[in-house]
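Lab channel / #folding
Pinned by the channel admin:
"Please post every new chain as: sequence first, then the structure tokens as a reply. Keep commentary short and put observations after the output so the thread stays searchable."

First post following the new format, from NK:
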Amino acid sequence: EVQLVQSGGGLVQPGGSLRLSCAASGFTFDDYAMSWVRQAPGAGLEWVSTIMWNGGSTYYAESMKGRFTISRDNGKNTLYLQMNSLKPEDTAVYFCNVPTLGSWGQGTQVTVSS
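Reply from TO:
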């Protein structure tokens, strides 16, 4: 059974930083690209970032470039999202995702507010 267990998130002031983690199990982690997706209040899903199986290639939505960094530790079967220079508009529930398996983490709330 594929499991994606997220941790991190919380409340942070504008300009602050947070790191999200996503611990994976039940599949061969380093065979798959991984993504982060978010959903702001009252909005649809928004793709944030994707990292290829070996971490060699990463992709970001335009508004996250230069502020967010996706990474993975295949030895620990864990995906990360380092978020810096956070803005109020980054407030959302963040999900990790295995696109080709259609599997999702449970979501974690990130709130950026003073």
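NK: The mean pLDDT is 97.
TO: also worth noting, The chain is about 0% helix and 50% strand.
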